[in-house]
Amino acid sequence: MKTIKHVAIIMDGNGRWGLKKRGSRHFGHLSGFRNLENIVDFSIKKKISYLTLFAFSTENWKRPESEIKYLFDLIRKYFKKKISSLMEKGARIKIIGNKNKLPKDVRKIISNVEKITKKNKKIQILLALNYGSKEEIVNSFKKLIKKKVKKVSVKQISNYLYTSRIPDPEILIRTGGYFRLSNFLLWQSAYSELFFLKKLWPDFKEKDFSKVIQKYYKIKRNFGSL
Ligand code: IPE
Ligand code: IPE
Ligand code: MG
Q1: Which residue has a Cα nearest atom 11 of ligand 2?
Q2: Alpha carbon of 174 to ligand 2 centroid (Å)
Q3: What's the gap in Å between 15 CA and the centre of ligand 2?
Q4: Which residues constitute the domain of residue 39?
């Protein structure tokens, strides 16, 4: 059986889900966060070592201020409420994305969570916050230039991404019905198996995750060879 080390998820469709259920995009975001626990537990059960979750993109600043504020409030509350359960599960949290532009208190909360969970070994959750793949790649080049690296290589560029030393995802899932990557893990997903699901994120359950994994097992991965 092929091992699955890394699964990345574009958790799309919260707004539409909330609008449909309660006429409120905010309610969709709340339900999206509530859906995380089961997905994390299932990932641990499946012995997945890295779970990357796209929570806020560098483009999401274009949204109304009230929605952005609600999202960051959810993030604040999530870590406050869930830190002990994350410790119990053995989950290590790492934020990927441009932390500089995040609200100051959120920066403090996440650096604290990263520190507290640092030694946890069951699963690493990479939460993509203010994450943009193009910015990440540009930053990597900037660092290489600063270090006066002469031989620019795939390895060197990878080394300076937020995901350095983390294997590329075997599986990339996007819920919400659109067939696009929206600036997520463009470099790292070069050879990922892509799964685009119609279901909106709050409706994505263990059963759906399990189906993706079953399909993944049936795929012949070539990496260019035969
Ligand atoms: C994804 O859900 C979560 C974030 C981008 C924060 P959306 O908010 O994009 O939900 P839809 O796509 O509008 O339904
Ligand atoms: C992608 O969803 C970002 C996250 C899930 C955090 P978006 O809803 O922002 O993507 P677009 O704008 O529809 O491409
Ligand atoms: Mg969306």
Answers
A1: 182
A2: 10
A3: 10
A4: 6-132+168-217
